[in-house]
Specification:
mainly alpha, two-stranded antiparallel ribbon, 2 strands
Length: 128
């Protein structure tokens, strides 16, 4: 996973795990890999992974069983998709504002893209 410098690595790992949950690659109730396994997978220190786990626990995404591991909460899907979408939109707007775009420019460009989407925009069967 390539990390960006604008956000702490532990948050990026946490977001990656949340994306795996939302995309159904990880299921509610499922046990997560160990901290050591994640540290090898993400090529970071176990302390960074532990911070990611603490972040996910504080967000109500996982729970920890001492000596057993970390598990995805059974009711995790309630609101997770919406909150992740809100986080992505917020980050997108903040980034565009840092690039010097006004709110009017941002809205105009979004509306223009929605009317004439690029090839990379995916849509479901309802046209959204």
């Amino acid at each position: 996973m390539g990390f960006n410098t604008e956000q702490p690595i532990y948050l990026q790992i946490g977001m990656d795990i949340k994306e795996q949950i939302v995309s159904r690659k990880l299921a509610p109730g499922e046990k997560l890999r160990s901290v050591r396994e994640y540290s090898v997978l993400y090529e970071v220190s176990p302390l960074t992974v532990q911070r990611a786990m603490q972040y996910l626990e504080s967000e109500g995404i996982i729970y920890s069983q001492k000596g057993v591991g970390n598990f995805i909460k059974a009711d995790v899907m309630d609101g997770l998709e919406g909150s992740m979408l809100d986080e992505q939109i917020h980050g997108f707007i903040v980034h565009l504002r840092k690039c010097g775009l006004s709110d009017e420019d941002i809205i105009g460009r979004i509306l223009k893209e929605m009317k004439n989407p690029g090839e990379e925009v995916l849509r479901d069967d309802s046209g959204r």
